[in-house]
Design brief:
- The chain is an alpha/beta fold.
- It has a domain of 150 residues.
- Helices cover 58% and strands 15% of the residues.
- The chain has 19 helices and 15 strands.
- The protein is elongated.
- The C terminus is likely disordered.
Length: 668
């Protein structure tokens, strides 16, 4: 299947008639690239394709909680007073070896009472009444609505499939449709209906009417569950986007100094503590300076003074000794003289004693300090004790003061870096608003989850009530009746269908597992991260095995790797379908990081299908990503929204890049 042309007339943001050619110019350039800012109408293009193909069965992005008629009325362009809208889709499809050309037109008009759509199908340039009347069945032959999400999807919603519970539901739905098991399920449901009807034929009309009411209630519950589940999933995606936005806003808030502003009181208390500690160290140093510590500056002089004092003390002692020696020597001479020695001996002794006393007197230091005994003791105590204590204590005190000064300067700088409240007003208001909106979303999501649980319980009770109601207590009366035979065969057929379904699933799951694993390994930057992948045939949960042979839970993967895994599931299932169908992706790169984005650009988009329509913002496929993708781009368009006219126009080229003039676009 190849989509050749999409025409919009007063649909959504597109006023007037807009015709866009979508045919890839060559197999080597399968990508049709649309660029537009948020709100320019990218998602509207995806909605238009789905709406044109499926009508009431379509699941457009903005239909949440609305009836089909309400959605149609709300989709009519409001900028030019239009009262009607139309979508046309031209495509080619191979059927029984022959190419069929389809031109599908879906239009609707607003009336006072209602807004119903009309469908017209032109096949091979001729109106086809049969295809028009039975289009819902026709479109299921080449693009079943239940697997359309494998080929037509919003890139941001892929993240929901990264949750094993969500991916299990996706895989189960896809496998059932790919293998035709949805028909088996439908047959099983039909058999259940036949069984109930046969059992009810013997019951009064009143009980049959009551059963119809119960069955109607069950169907209403199922429809309500589908609606609430879709809203719940969308709310979860919105909440994830809001959480990412909040993370980016928190980072901006931090860079602007918001975290310091929030800690302003704490920082001011820290500054006050640092100032008090610094003043305390200063007081301690001043106390030290009031003692002997300043004398360390004249330490050598004090040492010389102490030495001089010791020398003077020794000199005083020497003078006292000289006086004693003079008296002693006189007594010695007098005593020896009484012995009448020779004059020479007496002279020699007298000379020796005199010279001895003279030498002692020559060694005496003349007093210069004249220090008292108390002064000498105080000087000795100062040099030998107090200065040593001060010398050992001062380095520690100075280190304490230096550390206190550094802490004080750091505290002052942090307080000085705190922005003013006025500087953060806009950013803080935006963050507070985001927090409030996130809280509202979480509350709504929780309420929807609780509502979903209640509806499911109600559905279980309704089903149980139907089962109890239809339980046949008259088996004895039906033993020989034709009804008993039908019921017996219905039961056997249902058992056979269950066995057939399980056998088909187990037989084909290996091929699907291999395709999903191959797709994942093509997208992964870490080639050896995942060694094998298995899908449980009962629960359809994914199980990954690492290269070490141990299980690899999905929560062990990074957010980007989980999104690549979800993309691989879609890609692998699409490949398993064996259907040559176009792929349309809105917001193709979501919130992937740079390395994972490049893997998608180079390893997925060019290979996803023979026709790939990408609807991107200027922050996704841009710069290096656009240059890497450019060789595979066959056509590129820019969605330009005119605020004055309130309408979007489609122009050639992709943002600043302009394609060749062979582009064919008509706007009237």
């Amino acid at each position: 299947m190849i989509i050749d042309q999409l025409t919009l007339h007063d649909f959504g943001q597109y006023g007037g008639r807009v015709v866009v050619d979508l045919t890839p110019p060559s197999p080597e350039q399968p990508i049709i690239l649309f660029g537009g800012l948020n709100g320019a109408g990218k998602t509207t293009l995806l909605d238009a394709i789905q709406l044109c193909l499926y009508g009431q069965l379509a699941r457009p992005s903005r239909r949440e909680g609305m009836s089909y008629e309400q959605y149609l009325e709300g989709s009519i362009h409001r900028g030019n007073g239009a009262t009607s809208a139309m979508i046309e889709l031209r495509f080619r499809h191979m059927s029984h070896g022959e190419e069929q050309i389809y031109h599908v037109k879906r239009s609707w008009r607003r009336t006072p009472k209602t807004c119903k759509d009309q469908l017209e199908v032109i096949r091979n340039h001729r109106f086809d009444a049969m295809a028009t009347d039975h289009w819902a069945e026709q479109v299921e032959e080449f693009l079943p609505s239940r697997i359309a999400h494998l080929f037509l999807f919003d890139g941001e919603q892929i993240e929901a499939y990264a949750d094993p519970r969500s991916s299990a539901g996706l895989i189960e739905t896809a496998v059932y449709n790919l293998l035709g098991l949805d028909l088996v399920e439908k047959l099983g449901s039909d058999l259940s209906v036949i069984e109930r009807r046969r059992r009810m034929e013997v019951r009064p009309q009143e009980e049959q009417d009551q059963l119809k009411v119960l069955e109607l209630r069950r169907e209403e519950l199922r429809e309500r569950i589908d609606i609430v589940h879709a809203a719940h999933a969308k709310r979860e995606a919105d909440l994830t986007r809001m959480q990412d936005l909040r993370a980016r806003l928190e980072e901006r808030f931090r860079k602007e100094g918001g975290h310091l502003y929030e800690r302003r009181g704490e920082l001011e208390r820290t500054l006050s503590t640092a100032e008090a500690h610094f003043r305390s160290t200063e007081r301690t140093l001043r106390d030290a300076a009031a003692g002997a510590s300043p004398l360390l500056l004249v330490g050598p002089l004090l040492q010389r003074t102490a030495q001089q004092s010791r020398m003077e003390t020794a000199s005083a002692q020497a003078l006292a000794t000289d006086q004693l020696l003079s008296k002693r020597d006189a007594e010695i001479i007098e005593t020896i003289t009484k012995q009448k020695p020779s004059s020479s001996v007496l002279k020699a002794l007298s000379d020796f004693l005199r010279e001895d006393r003279a030498s002692r007197r020559n060694a005496v230091e003349l007093p210069r300090l004249g220090m008292s005994d108390v002064g000498r003791d105080r000087l000795r105590e100062l040099t030998e004790a107090e200065l040593n204590t001060a010398r050992a204590m001062l380095p520690s005190l100075l280190d304490d003061q230096h550390r206190a000064w550094i802490a004080l300067e750091d505290a002052r700088n942090q307080v000085a870096a705190v922005p003013t409240a006025e500087a953060l007003t806009a950013l803080s208001s935006e963050r507070d608003d985001l927090i409030t909106r996130a809280a509202v979303l979480q509350t709504e999501q929780k309420a929807e989850g609780e509502q979903l649980d209640r509806l499911r319980r109600d559905l279980e009770r309704a089903q149980a009530e139907i089962s109890r109601f239809t339980a046949d207590d008259k088996e004895a009366q039906l033993a020989q009746d034709d009804r008993a035979r039908v019921l017996l065969h219905v039961s056997k057929v249902r058992e056979t269908l269950d066995k057939f379904r399980d056998a088909v699933i187990r037989r084909h799951l290996a091929r699907i597992e291999a395709l999903v694993l191959d797709s994942f390994q093509q997208l992964l930057r870490k080639k050896t991260l995942v060694a094998s992948l298995r899908i449980d045939p009962e629960t359809f949960h994914l199980a990954l095995t690492g290269r070490d042979g141990n299980p690899l839970p999905p929560d062990r993967l990074s957010a980007g790797e989980r999104q690549l895994l979800a993309t691989s599931v879609l890609w692998g299932l699409a490949r398993a379908s064996g259907r040559p169908l176009p792929t349309v992706i809105d917001t193709p790169l979501g919130r992937l990081d740079s390395s994972h984005r490049r893997r998608l650009v180079t390893h997925y988009f060019p290979l996803a299908s023979h026709q790939v329509i990408l609807l991107s913002t200027d922050e996704e496929i841009a710069g290096g990503y656009f240059e890497a993708l450019k060789p595979f781009v066959g056509r590129a368009y820019h969605l330009q929204f005119d605020e004055e006219r309130g309408t979007t126009s489609v122009e050639p080229g992709y943002f600043s890049e302009v394609n060749a003039t062979s582009e064919s676009i008509h706007v009237s």
